[in-house]
Design goal:
167 residues; elongated
């Protein structure tokens, strides 16, 4: 930094043009390295969100099944779950069941896992299997998980590991 003395003897302090160019260049180089890492962090964040939802779906399915088995055992005061259909109460919400596990719809596993498409930033595609995709993914088909309801009595639902290659 230079200090200059003007005509009237006043001193002015400031950066030279070269110092400003060097500082701006350094900031540009740092930004060039930081931007790809930031983009990669977004992808990792979407993959982590999908893995968390996957865990919630697996846990909710197991908890709902356990609640249904309590009904089937005759332990519950007012059983609402049968071997083929019915509902169970999870956190005050009625979860639709089929063959002792949540159904693959909004009233089933989505309610049991407490998935909220707006706040969770996901898209729920109806059907069997039910598909959950993370919004903002580079390739939504490769950033999703699925839940296929139980195919029959005594058979667990099919919940394959999520696909995160396109997150």
């Amino acid at each position: 930094m230079r200090t200059q003395t003007g005509r009237a003897g006043a001193r002015s302090a400031g950066f030279t043009l070269i110092e400003l160019v060097v500082v701006i260049s350094i900031i540009g180089i740092l930004a060039a390295f930081a931007l790809p890492r930031y983009v990669n962090m977004q992808s990792q964040s979407r993959a982590a969100k999908l893995n968390a939802i996957y865990g919630a779906v697996r846990s909710a399915s197991a908890l709902a099944s356990a609640a249904c088995r309590v009904d089937l055992a005759g332990v519950a005061q007012t059983p609402t779950c049968t071997q083929d259909a019915g509902t169970v109460n999870m956190d005050g919400l009625a979860v639709t069941m089929r063959f002792g596990y949540p159904t693959a719809d909004g009233a089933g596993i989505v309610t049991a896992a407490q998935i909220n498409p707006q706040t969770d930033q996901v898209q729920v595609l109806a059907g069997n299997p039910l598909v959950i995709q993370v919004r903002g993914a580079v390739d939504s088909v490769n950033c999703q998980m699925s839940y296929q309801e139980s195919p029959g009595r005594g058979q667990a639902p099919i919940i394959p590991a999520p696909v995160t290659s396109g997150c």
